[in-house]
Amino acid sequence: MAQVTFGDWRDDAFLQRRPSVETLAWVATSMGRGSRVVGHRRLTGGVCSAVHRLTVEQRGVRTFVVLRQYPAGVGVEADLEREIANLGVVAASGLPVPSVLATDVAGASTGGAPSLLMTRLPGHVHLSPAEPRSWIARIAELAALLHSLDLPAKTFRPWTDSWVALEKFRVPIAAQKPAVWKAAFGVMAAAPPQDTPVFLHRDFLPVNMLWSRGRITGLTDWNSIQRGSRAIDVGECRFYLAALHSPEWSEELRSLYESTAGVALDPWWDLYALLHYDDGSPKAIRSQVAGRRPVDTAGMTSRVEVAVEAALRRLG
After folding, report:
1. Segments in the chain forming alpha helices (H)
2. % helix / strand / coil in the chain, to the nearest 5?
C-alpha cells in the first residue's frame, strides 16, 4: 500500500465526510436503471480509506452495499487495482469475502476519489468475546481453510514484501527485557528456512473479520495476497492478540491452529511475524480498533514480549 499515517479517522475530514454527489450518482448508475441511493452511514474503522454502507433502492427493493474511497492524489491507484484483482482471485473460493460491484480507480466519476463498490457482508467486527477460546477457535478454523486453498499469488519475500527489515529492527522503548528482543533480532539474521508455501491473506487480523452469532461472516482488506509460510498469517494475528488481549490468547491461537490444520507452525517464521510489532504498533492498533473496545497501549510491548520470548524458546 502507499504510505499512510495512523491517525484517528474521527479527526480526518475526508474520512468523516459523506460521499460526494458525483459519487452517489455513480453508485446509482452502477446498480442499474431506476436505482437511487436513499441512505448512507459511515462505518467504524478505516485508517486510510473512507468506508460507507449505502442503501440503494431499485423498484421498491432496498439493498445495502459498501463503498470504499480513498482521497484524491495520494497515489493509491495501483494498490486499489491490486485489491480488485485479489478479490477476483478469492471470489469463488468459499471464503466469506465481498463481491465487486463497480470500480472507478481513477475517480473519473467520483470527484477524483478512487472508489470500490462491493456487496455488504453480514456481521460486525467483534473484539471483546465472552468466550475467548471459542472465538479464537473460529479464527484458527478460518486460517486453516484459507491456507488450504490452491490459489495463485506471488511468493512472499521476507525482507522485500513487508515493512520490517533487518537493519531497521529496534528494541521497543517500553521493553522490559531488551535481551529478548536482541536475541530475536539475531535469529532473524540467519537465512529463512524453507517452509511449504500456502495461500496467505497477509493482513489476517481480528479487525478485518466480521462476526454474527458466533461465526465469522466476513474477511476483508484483500490488498496483499501472497504464497508463503502459514506462520506468517497466524503469527501476525498472534502479535495482534498478544498486544490487544494477552500472550495467553496468542498462544491459544497457535495451539488451536496447529490442531485444526494438522501442521506445526515453523518457529522461525512465527517469530518473524511476531517481530512486526514495533514502537508504532500501539498507535496503529488503537486507530484500527477505533473505539470498539478499551485499548491498553501502555502494556502492549510487555505482552508481545512474552510471546516473543516463548517463540524464542521453541526455536531452542
Report:
1. 13-16, 21-30, 77-89, 132-147, 178-188, 230-244, 247-261, 267-274, 281-289, 300-315
2. 40, 15, 45
- Residue 177 CA to residue 59 CA, distance in Å, equals 64
Which of 78, 56, 75, 77 minimizes the C-alpha distance to 65? 56
Residues 14 and 142 in one domain: no
Residue 16: band (very low, low, confident or very high) from pLDDT cuts 50, 70, 90: confident
Choosing from 119, 152, 176, the residue where a domain stops is 119
- Check whether residue 148 and residue 259 sit in a common domain: yes
Q: Are residues 111 and 213 in the same domain?
A: no
- Domain check: are 167 and 280 in the same one? yes
- Domain check: are 183 and 114 in the same one? no
| Cα 18 from Cα 274, distance rounded (Å) | 37
Confidence of residue 45 (pLDDT cuts 50, 70, 90): low
In a domain, 270, yes or no: yes
Q: So what's the pLDDT on residue 46?
A: 65
Count of the separate structural domains present in the chain: 2
Contact status, residue 193 vs residue 228, Cβ threshold 8 Å: no
pLDDT tens digits for 136-160? 999 999 999 999 999 999 999 999 9
Full-prediction pTM beyond 0.90?
yes
DSSP 8-state assignment for residue 56: E
Query: Coil, helix or strand for 85?
Result: helix
For 175-203, how does the pLDDT look when each residue is reduced to its tens digit (9 = 90+)? 999 999 999 999 999 999 999 999 999 99
Q: Which amino acid does the sequence have at 82? A: R
Per residue in 68-89, pLDDT (tens digit) is 999 888 888 999 999 999 999 9
Q: Which domain holds residue 254?
A: 132-315
